């Protein structure tokens, strides 16, 4: 069977490059095109058409929606993922009606794109293609803020002992890099480092992803699949977004951690493994335990040692160092000339709040490497790259939230974070569903969520009429 092939159509060289690299690393054949016309010409001439196509929306010449339409006329069953900037989402909601398979809002996380491709092309990818089994050398964890120095010391100490570690911190703060560093510095370094993002994989596939399955274990399981635990034997298993793990699987994971052995899904043979688990979460797991969403005994098992990564806004002194690093890295990988930041530009970067933390900074630097016209990056370039993401009304909203939080703390409300998240999700979902007349796929696209995530958030009994009282 030939390996599945993926095509990327995007006018932005940086996006083509990073997406193609990530998908190739994951084991797929990838071809990339800079515009719709050349992609369509290649499609018509191709002996082996793609099995999946990613397209940008806004491109010079025919846009991605025109391309989508033309492709659908030729091959209606071709899955097409439409990628678009956050600000274009409203105009892109129609993409689903036009037959798009999925929607990826830019800037996106490469892991999400790879997971999405894995969903479309099937979970039993060729075994050699495990996206996370990358070489773990040369991934520098940079920083000289006191909290980071303390963290490096802790990593050095902890790497030697096979203790479970829980890494906490907001999204994009570098939790996975910490896990990789723990592995790299450990006696397990010559064995695999395997990562699994619990939140990126649909709940129904998670069990077989973790523990593997035998051929015929369920519909669609044609071949035996070796799970991540087995892949990581002798090495380190990194479980990202552990807080999102479904309850039944938490129970199973706990048992495996206690006993070091398990059955594959549909299997009778007991599999023994020696795996060091590093788990990560951006959530408050104690609060999830208190509200019954996370098992206390599993938390204790994972949380033998805890490492906390501060958000980037709490270590602003590291911003210039990180920015220079990402800019140089992007230039090398783009084959472009190195650029430098003006003082003002660095000040602007240092003043930003970075809700997406280091990942957001990395994305902005890639954008600057690819787009800023001169060799010196000025403040205005940074303004443009940061976009107009902080309209003034957001401030009012945050103010209201702060008032609410103060009042709730005053009342002694114990589960503030969960309540807030739930209300936030509910408001966003209701507004989006209201706008799309209840069509979930489009509502998901409007919110920049995957359809699966939306369905999970809606859950049973969560489908409410738009204007129900609270
Ligand atoms: N201190 C650092 N030095 C260099 N690069 C970093 C650092 N911290 C994070 N990065 C880079 O930022 C990006 C995000 O890091 P990472 O994936 O480890 O974050 P995360 O906390 O695991 O995110 P999430 O919770 O969303 O999974 C990666 O590309 C990583 O290489």
UniProtKB/TrEMBL annotation:
Keyword Repressor: yes
Keywords associated with the record: Activator, ATP-binding, Cytoplasm, DNA-binding, Nitrogen fixation, Nucleotide-binding, Phosphoprotein, Repressor, Transcription, Transcription regulation, Two-component regulatory system
Sigma-54 factor interaction domain boundaries: 141-370
Pfam assignment, any one: HTH_8
Subcellular location as annotated: Cytoplasm
Gene3D superfamilies: 1.10.8.60, 3.40.50.2300, Homeodomain-like, P-loop containing nucleotide triphosphate hydrolases
SUPFAM superfamilies: CheY-like, Homeodomain-like, P-loop containing nucleoside triphosphate hydrolases
Modified-residue entries (4-aspartylphosphate), positions: 56
Domain (Response regulatory) ranges: 5-121
Role of this protein: Member of the two-component regulatory system NtrB/NtrC, which controls expression of the nitrogen-regulated (ntr) genes in response to nitrogen limitation. Phosphorylated NtrC binds directly to DNA and stimulates the formation of open promoter-sigma54-RNA polymerase complexes.
Entry protein name: DNA-binding transcriptional regulator NtrC
Native organism: Cognatilysobacter xinjiangensis
Taxonomy of the source species: Bacteria, Pseudomonadati, Pseudomonadota, Gammaproteobacteria, Lysobacterales
Designated gene of the protein: ntrC
């Amino acid at each position: 069977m030939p390996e599945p092939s993926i095509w990327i159509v995007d006018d932005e060289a940086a996006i083509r490059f990073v997406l193609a690299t990530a998908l190739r690393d994951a084991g797929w054949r990838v071809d990339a095109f800079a515009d719709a016309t050349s992609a369509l010409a290649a499609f018509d001439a191709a002996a082996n058409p793609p099995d999946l196509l990613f397209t940008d929306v806004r491109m010079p010449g025919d846009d991605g929606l025109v391309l989508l339409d033309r492709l659908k006329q030729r091959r209606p069953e071709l899955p097409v993922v439409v990628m678009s900037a956050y600000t274009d989402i409203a105009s892109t909601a129609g993409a689903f009606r036009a037959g798009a398979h999925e929607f990826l809002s830019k800037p996106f996380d490469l892991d999400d794109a790879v997971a999405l491709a894995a969903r479309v092309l099937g979970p039993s990818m060729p075994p050699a293609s495990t996206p996370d089994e990358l070489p773990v050398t040369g991934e520098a964890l940079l920083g000289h803020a006191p909290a980071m120095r303390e963290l490096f010391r802790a990593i050095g100490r902890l790497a030697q002992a096979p203790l479970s570690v829980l890494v906490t911190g907001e999204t994009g703060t570098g939790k996975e890099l910490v896990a990789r560093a723990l592995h790299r510095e450990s006696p397990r370094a010559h064995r695999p480092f395997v990562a699994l993002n619990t939140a990126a994989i649909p709940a129904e596939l998670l069990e077989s992803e973790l523990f593997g399955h035998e051929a015929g274990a369920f519909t669609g399981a044609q071949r035996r699949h070796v799970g991540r635990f087995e892949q990581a034997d002798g090495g380190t298993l990194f479980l990202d977004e552990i807080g999102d793990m479904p309850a039944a699987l938490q129970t199973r994971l706990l048992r495996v951690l206690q006993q070091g052995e398990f059955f594959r899904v549909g299997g009778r043979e007991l599999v023994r493994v020696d795996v060091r688990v590093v788990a990560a979460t951006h959530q408050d797991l104690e609060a999830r335990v208190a509200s019954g969403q996370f098992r206390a005994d599993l938390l204790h098992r994972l949380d033998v040692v805890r490492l906390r990564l501060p958000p980037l806004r709490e270590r602003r002194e590291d911003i210039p160092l990180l920015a220079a690093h990402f800019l140089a890295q992007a230039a090398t990988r783009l084959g472009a000339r190195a650029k430098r930041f003006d003082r003002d530009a660095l000040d602007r970067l240092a003043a930003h709040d970075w809700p997406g933390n280091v990942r957001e900074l990395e994305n902005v630097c890639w954008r600057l490497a690819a787009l800023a016209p001169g060799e010196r990056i000025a403040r205005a370039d940074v303004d443009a790259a940061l976009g107009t993401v902080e309209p003034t009304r957001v401030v009012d909203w945050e103010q209201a939230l702060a008032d609410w939080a103060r009042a709730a703390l005053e009342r002694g409300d114990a589960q503030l974070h969960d309540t807030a998240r739930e209300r936030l999700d509910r408001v966003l979902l209701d507004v989006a569903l209201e706008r799309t007349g209840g069509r979930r796929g489009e509502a998901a696209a409007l919110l920049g969520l995957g359809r699966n995530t939306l369905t999970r958030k809606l859950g049973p009994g969560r489908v409410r009429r738009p204007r129900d009282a609270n």
